[in-house]
Amino acid sequence: MGFIEDAVAFFAGWIWGIPLLVLLMGGGLFFMVYARFSPFLYFKHAIQVLAGKYHEEDKEGQISHYEALSTALAATVGMGNISGVAVAITMGGPGAIFWMWVSAFFGIATKFFTCTLAVMYRGKDSDGEVRGGPMYVITEGLGKKWKPLAVFFCIFALIGALPIFQANQLTAALNEVLAPSIGYDVASSFSFLGIDIPYASAIIGVILTVLVSSVIFGGIKRIAKVASKMVPSMVVLYFILVVYILLQNLAGIPEIFASILEEAFNGNAILGGGVGAIIVTGAKRAAFSNEAGIGTAPMVHGDSKTDEPVREGLVAMLGPAIDTLLVCTLTALVILSTGVYKPYIGDGNIAGISLTLEAFNAAIPGYGAYFLGLCILVFAVSSLLSYSYYGVKCVSFMLGAKNGNLYNYLYIGTIIIGAVTSLGFVVNLIDSSFALMAIPTMISAILLAPKAWKAAQDYFARLKAGEFDN
């Protein structure tokens, strides 16, 4: 097991080098400049679409604009924002947050293009259902000869969509919150194939498996309905908690922002690291947070009920603004304002949800961990529900729609594995998979960008002419 963990860690460090950074951040910059920053002018219109103003029930697709964004956000607003930010700070210091912001701005443009293309180049599965996603963008937009690239994406999406990070961090949070109050022993373990497995974590994994199984086999419609009800209320609760904490430390907020900007360019926070290492850390955690350019969101947005691709692209671009620029920033401010992160900097260990819990408990003594624990439970479960659909779509693409649900059996089986595995291994495995998924997603989007931009110009012109006012 140690050899496997070392190998995955080495590969994750290698794949997240300069070429991939150029592809993701450089690609986002290309989309932003190529579109002349125009998508940023339509945030108000995107919110109107999200609110249902332009929803047409009779159009091809399976879910509404709101359900599509809710499902995509269920996968991104969650452990990536609460735990992932803590990972970013312990790996890259406060400066990593700045590069998460930069990546998020590029991610807005990337989401606009990739999700516009996901509706423009939808295909049909073997059951005749309309489907979207990078694999269909590749085969329908670039041609059948590009199918190996689509299969490449699907293979690594099967790993990237596994629920191991969410299960791992939810289990850690529950152990930290519940164990002291209930009194169970988190260290007690049993041996399986020579590996020590904690009883408590295994039991939580089993409970999560049963809970998630009851929803995911119902398909995207059931997942979307559950996610659309769970996510908004928890985002509001989380926002209230964070604002309450920050109001107690208003005077220190300017200093926090100053430290983020300073550390972003001098690299002092990382033992033996520099600015390059901080940029990579910020880019990785931003990719994990908002998944722009990874290819997951287009699989959901591509299933929305619309015949206006650009409209869905505008809704999709709200994702990075909500989950990275808003939620991640709020989490970072809490962690940095409480100062609990300082002992972790440079010690070589990765701290995730435990650090965020420590910060909330420091800010709201006795109750902070419980409030955050509730948010974590809902965020993690909603993420667990959404991620399963990505794998199902990839299996359906490769093996036929009737075999898609086979992935769910693998999916629910790995929930228990994620619950008992080390955080470092989980982070490196998902980082590696996301990196490999980004390659076909970004290549196809860049090659087809002229088609998306032409459609955008046409849509914006019709919008200004009042065509959609009736």
Average pLDDT works out at 78
Distance between the termini: 62 Å
User: Which percent band covers the strand fraction?
Assistant: under 5%
Spans of at least 5 consecutive residues whose pLDDT stays below 50 are 269-273
Helix and strand pattern: HHHHHHEEHHHEEHHHHHHHHHHHH
Structural class: mainly alpha
What's the count of strands?
Answer: 4
Number of helices: 21
Lateral strand order in the biggest sheet = 1-2
Rounded to an integer in angstroms, the radius of gyration calculated over CA atoms is 21 Å
How does this model look, in words?
The structure is a single chain. This protein is an all-alpha fold and 470 residues long. The chain is 73% helix and 3% strand. It has a two-stranded antiparallel sheet with strand order 1-2. A two-stranded antiparallel ribbon has the order 3-4. The protein is globular and about 60 Å long.
Features:
470 residues, mainly alpha, two-stranded antiparallel ribbon, 73% helix, globular
Entry summary:
This protein has helices at 2-15, 18-34, 43-50, 65-76, 79-92, 95-120, 134-142, 147-160, 164-182, 199-216, 219-247, 253-266, 275-290, 296-301, 309-316, 318-338, 353-363, 368-399, 406-420, 423-447, 449-464, and strands spanning 123-124, 130-131, 189-192, 195-198. The protein has 470 residues and is mainly alpha-helical.
SSE arrangement:
Layout: H1 2-15, H2 18-34, H3 43-50, H4 65-76, H5 79-92, H6 95-120, E1 123-124, E2 130-131, H7 134-142, H8 147-160, H9 164-182, E3 189-192, E4 195-198, H10 199-216, H11 219-247, H12 253-266, H13 275-290, H14 296-301, H15 309-316, H16 318-338, H17 353-363, H18 368-399, H19 406-420, H20 423-447, H21 449-464
Antiparallel strand pairs: 1-2, 3-4
